[in-house]
Structures are given as structure tokens and as C-alpha cells.
């Protein structure tokens, strides 16, 4: 069993993506058409495998950031559609590579692409999607956007390698953990938001504000994702918990529990996460240690801190539906079901 995290007893309304989704509804349909068109290849396995992970996945959160940011900046053109698709291709490529590195058989409850088609095909189709993203950047014609998104791609790869270096290492500290998630997750959030200001030709101060918003939102999002891996409510919703534990990933809840524990507890963490010598009942014991040291609630508070910075970054923008949608997105990312 996981641990139920009571984030805010006074909260009566669960944050949602409804405003953001309704705001960019027409644009996201256009983005999806662009994605389908750009996945086409005479090599049949490419659209099959790419379509599998794209269809299985997610809320299109990163492309929605580009669309909402452009709208908040008053953009009236069409460039943001292809660029939002570009952002989604970069994200999907990293997912394909991640599942191979992590040896994951499941992705959002469904069989991962590598479990169906194998590691080689997944890596190569991930490379294809990266290449498609660069084609879209070049077609847009902006050297600034090319610089932003190509830099994000390289930093994401650096973050994945850094995570590989810290994996199964219980000596990993909070600063190193933050370096990993800032690179592998937050960098693309920041780039997705920033290009919304670039296409709208907004001043540098607004571009930097959207970069800060995306960076801090991305950190908060990933911290909460790592908390959710130990959440009882997630288990009640039918979602697997404890995957990070079984893989020996060193996330913030583990770091806090390890640092606050005694010698005997640290021996437990080294056995289960460094040596991957895991037995029945070890996950429950890990959850008990996290609960005893308040590691999950304190991790959520860390996420709230970064959410507050993201909120402040939007302060320079005038009130409008897009700004309100992005503010609600912060609350949604932090207060997802626990």
C-alpha cells in the first residue's frame, strides 16, 4: 500500500486542465494533424511504432504550453502549430529512448514500444522523430527558435546521461537530483513556453519570463511525478506504483528519507536501490520510512516552491484567459490526484 498525501485540507475544488484544453482546442487539433502527417514514412514500422506511443500518450501538455504562450503574447499567425508539433516530437523521441534505457515494458499502463517492437526499433524511430523535429525547426526559418529547441534537445540528452550516472547511487544529493530533472524535464517545458514569445516577437523580458515559468513548472511537475510513484491514491486509480523503487531510481522522496534515516535504514536503502536486492514487503517498508520522515509531503512542498516561482514569472503579463489557464495549470500539475 502507498501513503495518502493530504496536500491541503481546505481545498474544495480539484484543479483541472479544462480551461487550457478549451482555450487551445482548435489549435491542438491542427497540431495533431501535423503530427500525423509528419509521422508518415514509406518504412511501415516507423508510423506504426511512432503512432503507438503518440496515441497512447498523454495530454499533449508540452505543445499546449507553446500554444497558450503564443496566445498570451497576442500571436495571430500559424507558425506555433508546427512548432508545437515539433515540441511533441522531441518529447516522444525522449520517451522512446527512456523506455529502452529503463528497460520498461509498460508506458502509461500499455505495452511500451520496445516491449512490442524491440529496443533497436524503438531507438531508431526515436531518432526519426528527432530528425522530423529538426525538419520542422528549419522549415520555420527562425534561427532563434532553432537555437532554443536544438539546445533543449542536447540538454535533455545530457540530463538522461546524468540520471544514468546517479541511478542506484544513494549518495546522490538533492542538488544533483534537481540538476537531472532541470535538464531532462524542465528544459523542454521552458523551451516550449519561450518559443511562444519568439513567434509573437515579444520583448526579451517576456521571453525570459516565459522561460522561467516553463523551467520552474517543469521542475514542479517532475517532483510531483516522482511523488506519485509512491501514492496510494494512484494505486486506487489502477496505476502501478513503486516502479521507480524497483528500478533503483534516486528521486527526491528517497533522498529525503535516506538523509533523515538512521544507519539501519540507510543499509536498507543501499540493499534495495544500489544492489537491487529486493524482497516481498520492501516497498511497503520503504513507504513506511518515507512516511516516518515526512519525505513525501516535504517533496510536495518543494514542488509548491517552484510552482510559486512559475506563478510569479507570469506577473508581467496582462490578465487574459491564456494567462489564467497557465496559472491553473500550475495548480493542476502540483495537485494531481494523490
Descriptive account of the structure:
The protein has helices at 18-23, 25-38, 45-56, 61-72, 79-102, 113-117, 119-140, 143-166, 174-199, 204-228, 232-236, 243-247, 252-260, 263-274, 282-292, 295-313, 321-334; strands at residues 106-107, 110-111. It is mostly helical and 338 residues long. The chain has a domain at 18-225 and 315-333: Orthogonal Bundle (Farnesyl Diphosphate Synthase), CATH 1.10.600.10. It has a two-stranded antiparallel ribbon. Helix 2 packs across helix 5, helix 4 crosses helix 9 and helix 13 packs across helix 16.
SSE blueprint:
Layout: H1 18-23, H2 25-38, H3 45-56, H4 61-72, H5 79-102, E1 106-107, E2 110-111, H6 113-117, H7 119-140, H8 143-166, H9 174-199, H10 204-228, H11 232-236, H12 243-247, H13 252-260, H14 263-274, H15 282-292, H16 295-313, H17 321-334
Antiparallel strand pairs: 1-2
Helix pairs in contact: 2-5, 3-7, 4-5, 4-9, 4-17, 5-7, 5-8, 5-9, 7-8, 8-9, 9-10, 10-16, 13-16, 16-17
What coarse outline follows from CA principal-axis ratios? globular
Individual helix count: 17
Give the second-level CATH assignment, the architecture of the domain at 18-225 and 315-333. Orthogonal Bundle
Would you tell me which CATH topology of the domain at 18-225 and 315-333 applies? Farnesyl Diphosphate Synthase
**What gyration radius follows from the Cα positions, in whole Å?**
20 Å
**Order of helix and strand elements from N to C terminus:** HHHHHEEHHHHHHHHHHHH
End-to-end CA span: 13 Å
Amino acid at each position: 500500500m502507498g501513503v495518502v498525501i493530504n496536500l491541503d485540507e481546505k481545498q474544495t475544488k480539484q484543479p483541472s486542465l479544462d480551461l487550457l484544453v478549451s482555450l487551445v482546442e482548435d489549435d491542438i487539433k491542427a497540431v495533431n494533424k501535423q503530427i500525423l502527417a509528419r509521422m508518415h514514412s514509406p518504412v511501415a514500422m516507423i508510423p506504426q511504432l511512432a503512432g503507438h506511443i503518440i496515441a497512447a500518450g498523454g495530454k499533449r501538455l508540452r505543445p499546449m504550453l507553446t500554444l497558450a504562450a503564443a496566445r498570451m503574447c497576442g500571436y495571430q499567425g500559424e507558425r506555433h502549430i508546427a512548432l508545437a508539433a515539433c515540441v511533441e516530437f522531441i518529447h516522444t523521441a525522449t520517451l522512446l529512448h527512456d523506455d529502452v534505457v529503463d528497460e520498461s515494458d509498460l508506458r502509461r499502463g500499455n505495452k511500451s514500444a520496445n516491449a512490442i517492437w524491440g529496443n533497436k526499433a524503438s531507438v531508431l524511430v526515436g531518432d526519426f522523430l528527432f530528425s522530423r523535429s529538426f525538419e520542422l525547426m528549419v522549415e520555420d526559418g527562425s534561427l532563434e527558435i532553432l537555437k532554443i529547441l536544438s539546445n533543449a534537445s542536447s540538454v535533455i540528452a545530457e540530463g538522461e546521461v546524468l540520471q544514468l550516472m546517479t541511478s542506484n547511487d544513494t549518495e546522490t544529493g538533492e542538488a544533483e537530483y534537481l540538476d537531472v530533472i532541470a535538464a531532462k524535464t524542465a528544459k523542454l517545458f521552458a523551451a516550449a513556453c519561450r518559443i511562444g514569445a519568439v513567434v509573437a516577437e515579444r520583448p526579451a523580458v517576456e521571453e525570459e519570463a516565459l522561460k522561467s515559468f516553463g523551467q520552474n513548472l517543469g521542475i514542479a511537475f517532475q517532483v510531483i511525478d516522482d511523488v506519485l510513484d509512491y501514492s496510494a491514491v494512484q494505486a486506487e486509480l489502477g496505476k502501478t506504483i513503486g516502479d521507480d523503487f524497483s528500478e533503483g531510481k534516486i528521486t527526491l522522496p528517497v533522498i529525503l528519507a535516506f538523509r533523515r534515516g538512521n544507519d539501519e535504514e540507510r543499509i536498507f536503502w543501499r540493499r534495495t536501490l544500489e544492489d537491487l536486492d529486493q524482497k516481498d514487503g520492501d516497498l511497503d517498508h520503504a513507504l513506511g520510512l518515507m512516511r516516518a520522515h515526512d519525505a513525501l509531503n516535504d517533496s510536495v512542498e518543494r514542488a509548491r516552491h517552484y510552482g510559486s516561482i512559475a506563478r510569479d514569472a507570469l506577473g508581467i503579463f496582462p490578465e487574459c484567459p491564456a494567462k489564467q489557464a497557465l496559472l491553473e495549470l500550475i495548480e493542476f500539475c502540483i495537485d494531481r490526484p494523490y
